[in-house]
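Data availability (excerpt). The following record was deposited with the supplementary files.
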Amino acid sequence: MTEADEKPPINMTSPDMPSEDKAKDELVNSYAVAKRLLPFLAKRGIPALPKNYRIFYDYLLYTNPALNKAVNGLLDSNAQFNSKLSSSLYDHFYSHEVLDTKALAISQAALDFIAVSNTMEQHIETAMTQASHYHQVLSTTSRQMGEHPSLDELQSFLDELLLETETSLAVGGHFSSQLQEANQTIAALKDEIKNQTTLAKIDELTKLYNRRHLNFEAPLLMAQAAKTGRPLAAIMFDIDKFKLINDNWGHNFGDKVLVICAEIIQKAARSTDVAVRLGGEEFLLLAGGLDAAGAARVAERIRQTLVNTEITVRGQALPVTISGGVAQYRPGENLTALLARADTALYQAKNGGRNQIRVAEEETPDQAAPATDQLITPQGE
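Predicted structure:
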């Protein structure tokens, strides 16, 4: 019988728990599983590879019954979980995810932290054992010296006490050194995890947030908007004729255009807004507290700023324009629906001549037909 069969998954959360309590319990659960993970792998001779870490972390949490069934079969047959088998399992069960270098670094940092934690527990246990032993020696010596020993016996007691004191000091000094070392390691790991976590949500070229971070942040903003009644707007941008820019002037210049557009969008964004590169030449600005009209004014300011920005290539100025679509969040809709309406408005801006901003008109809840988009800026090129 495998460990996952012997011990049920650790899950102390309840659907009725407040969100803060759930978050705390999930942290406790994940740490408890992480503590079991390395001994589990070591006991079975399974290498602590990042993919094995992910597979067996989920295995011990029992988040995917199909994964547990497959792993149980492999464990029962004494399969060797080498890199080839790990990759095969990972590709089968996590093909929808991207295990990039950032994720690998975070996984490795987690393993390193657990290793440091386990090592420190061993050092603390050793120090406590030594302290207990020294206390016992002190008590015994004190009792013996109270029994009026001879000078020879007294000398023997003192020699023993001196030896135990030196031993305890040596252990204490070693433990202090280990604590300092562990503290430095933990601080370095903390910085690395913070750095890698930041990189994992930032688009490398434009330094805007990426789609992964949007998927995390958007539901929070939408829930807040639904709760407070404050508006929330999505502005989707697309650089006009970007393929021609790449084809005619090269991808390096195309990257320069992307960076310039991203900088303009970022400067127009407030600290509470979420500026995202969706991919390719598409950008998104998720603006809390702005209704459709307010978001349209921001989008128009971004459009005009780009028009007035001189972008040169090989000594010649190249006009670059952008089109945008605006949609206001409707309580109850998901991110996909919100972006679809903004994208429809963007399509209308493109189809209407580019270099303009369109706003999706509000629909009543029972309307099934697509909204007719409203042109708010004059046509450009």
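Summary of structural features: The longest strand covers residues 232-239.
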